[in-house]
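To: structure subgroup
Subject: Chain for Friday's discussion

All,

I'm putting the inputs and outputs inline so they're searchable in the archive.
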Amino acid sequence: MKGKVADCGDNLCVEERRLAVIKDSMLDEEIFLDVADTFQVLSEPTRVKIVFVLAEAGELCVHHIATLLNMSPSAVSHQLRLLRNMRLVKTRKEAQHVYYSLSDGHIVQLFRQCLEHIEE
């Protein structure tokens, strides 16, 4: 026997049991905020371009990123700082040079899946 169906105004649409399962699986509010913050950081085209070049190159210094994007190194550094604060990029220091790369494969996967979605 099926569960009781929830009333959506004039329509009976979803079993109450299914709604309860979904409600029980809701994540903590902090996780939703972190996800929203991540998408907000990626809502700026320059930062998306930086993610793209790092996904393609693997690792670059500020100078090379700035050259690729036709921007000043200080403007790129500012954007990288925001990406780093959100743990989307990481750094590696070698002598006096700092190299940037994406934090992990999840960032590349998220970026590529978004591209696939856009290109459909």
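Points worth raising on Friday:
The chain has a mean pLDDT of 88.
The first strand starts at residue 5 and ends at 8.

D.
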